[in-house]
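[audit] Reproducing an earlier prediction to check determinism. Same input, same settings, fresh worker. If the tokens differ from the archived copy the diff job will pick it up downstream; this log only records the rerun itself.
[audit] input (71 residues):
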Amino acid sequence: MFRDYLENAGVTQILAPAHCSTDKLNNSSIDPALLIQRSGTPVMHINENQPVKELPKRKIILEPETLLAEA
């Protein structure tokens, strides 16, 4: 079921569980790391020693209702 969810959501990679918080929701939950491993989806690892590039700035796009309210 998890693999189907990933496929339908268009997920092509998953961040390695070591780089984020992944806990069981309750005692009967399955370990997320096990689900990720069994899904066969490529796991992305972060090189923490490499500096992060600055992301390009985005333009803010206002919704049509906002533009009308300002006029």
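[audit] rerun output stored. Observation attached for the diff report: The helical segments are 2-9, 32-39, 64-70.
[audit] end
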